[in-house]
């Protein structure tokens, strides 16, 4: 075999290179098809004889310039046009590359099932590596990023990111008293809101007064009610086109409070007088309430009636008095 019949690149031939002979009309011709892995720099390649012959004498052969770019291809995420909680969806990540023996590794930041991978051959020596997962949307993932990373043998990591838009029915439905922890008295008006987490937002509401679960006429997100002993417990239901959910019950009696009143209107007393205080509680008097009394937050033993009387008052009786009311529905304090 002549030197011209032993042509290969300037690098030693890697594993897997191929030798092919063509015969025709008495002429003998030999070609090598050679692949070079892990190319990092732009180079000029030319034919060369094997190591037993000086390559310099063949530099006049035709040459090819290989241009190496600094940045490999970024991966591409492909998602369905819509995602709904609980409905499985196929999500694809793909990346183009030219390293047949060392394709990039694709990684996900979300848990997926039935993962598949495949390689597709495109034109001009380009390949596409594809990773596909079955993703089950949850409402907790709504608004969070889904990321696909391509990890290259060179250490480079590129990614594509998309924000998940997941539709779901109302969650965490709750009745909220808009003025917070403010105490209320019987006869006052209170505004309640039916709050929920939903995508799309809830657009229809049903309100209930919990006595015999009476449905109210109001259907807005907020309602205003007048408080009385028979009108204290409420719940609501929030709905969008995907479904509805109910709230727990709010008991407005928890916002009632007891109040200490000075009988006779006096707030200052002389020694030897009678101090009389009454624990007012703005609920129906039909309930058998029990009471306890405090001076400067210290319990007064054996004082369990609605009215506190201290005969022959002394300077040592001075202080801040408060009371607590005990009912079958909870305890209410003036502290």
CATH superfamily of the largest domain: Immunoglobulins
The description of the largest β-sheet is:
5 strands, antiparallel
Helical content (DSSP H or I, runs of 4+): under 10%
How much of the residues is beta strand, in percent?
over 45%
Q: Which structural category do the helix and sheet elements fall into?
A: mainly beta
CATH third-level topology of the largest domain: Immunoglobulin-like
Number of E-state strands: 27
Based on CA atoms alone, the radius of gyration comes out at 42 Å
At the first level of CATH, what is the class of the largest domain?
A: Mainly Beta
Shape: elongated
| Contiguous helical run count | 0
SSE string, helices as H and strands as E: EEEEEEEEEEEEEEEEEEEEEEEEEEE
Unreliable segments of 5+ consecutive residues: 1-29
Report how far apart the termini are. 108 Å
Average pLDDT, all residues? 78
| Number of structural domains | 4
Write the layout of secondary structure elements.
Layout: E1 18-24, E2 27-33, E3 43-45, E4 64-66, E5 76-78, E6 83-84, E7 89-97, E8 105-108, E9 113-121, E10 127-135, E11 145-151, E12 157-163, E13 166-177, E14 189-199, E15 204-209, E16 214-215, E17 222-226, E18 233-240, E19 243-246, E20 250-251, E21 258-262, E22 275-281, E23 290-295, E24 298-299, E25 307-310, E26 321-327, E27 330-333
Parallel strand pairs: 6-13
Antiparallel strand pairs: 1-2, 3-4, 5-7, 7-10, 8-11, 9-10, 11-12, 13-14, 14-17, 15-16, 15-18, 18-19, 18-20, 21-22, 22-25, 23-24, 23-26, 26-27
